[in-house]
Write a structure and sequence with these properties.
Protein name: RD3 protein
Low-confidence stretches: none
Distance between the termini: 125 Å
Order of helices and strands: HHHHHH
InterPro entries: RD3 (IPR028092)
Length: about 200
């Protein structure tokens, strides 16, 4: 047994994982959620320390050791959030994260409230995606409807009688050309303006 096979030096470098884009979106969004929960916990601890310092007047923060990660969402809620994340198109992943960070910065929630804010941002994004898909669908229907109606309109216009092209002589045509009208043979008398 050679040493090279033991360390796998002869293997070609592995390619970027061939994962589904939906899986990557879910993983990215859930990582953002867990990071925001940790940040909310950290801010909550800092607020408690400040309150304790103001209340007692003494800083014992250097004595206190906190666990790394205290709060975690339930498994059922995690599955629901992952299911909601699958409905987010990969092109919306970045805007969803930006919106989620804005909401967290605006409300400064506690760790328990972060998942609810995340859910509301996901619902908002899903509704926006649905509206855009419906708008695209209507636009496609409109374009196909216009194509058929335009073809019918051109067909109808070819078969119409044009009122400007006729063999019937009218007075207005003579006036437009600047010629003297021919004598009318109608039942009404002819009035001429004499100069």
């Amino acid at each position: 047994m050679s040493l090279a096979s033991w360390f796998r030096w002869n293997e070609p470098p592995s390619r970027i994982s061939q994962r589904n884009p939906t899986e990557m979106v879910v993983e990215t969004l859930m990582m953002e959620l867990s990071w925001q929960i940790k940040q909310a916990e950290k801010q909550q601890r800092e607020r408690e320390n400040e309150y304790r310092k103001i209340k007692t007047g003494v800083d014992y923060g250097w004595l206190v050791s906190y666990p790394k990660h205290n709060y975690d969402i339930s498994q059922g809620e995690r599955l629901q959030l992952e299911d909601m994340c699958t409905k987010i198109h990969p092109s919306y992943c970045g805007p969803v994260i930006v919106r989620f960070r804005q909401v967290v910065a605006e409300y400064e929630p506690e760790a328990q409230e972060v998942s609810r804010l995340f859910r509301s941002v996901l619902q908002e994004a899903a509704e926006k995606i649905k509206e855009e898909e419906e708008a695209k669908k209507l636009a496609r229907q409109w374009n196909t409807k216009n194509r058929t109606s335009l073809s019918l309109a051109t067909f109808k216009s070819r078969s119409r009688i044009s009122p400007f092209i006729s063999d019937i002589k009218t007075i207005s045509e003579d006036v437009e050309r600047g010629t003297q009208p021919t004598r009318r043979v109608w039942s009404m008398p002819e009035f001429r303006n004499t100069k």
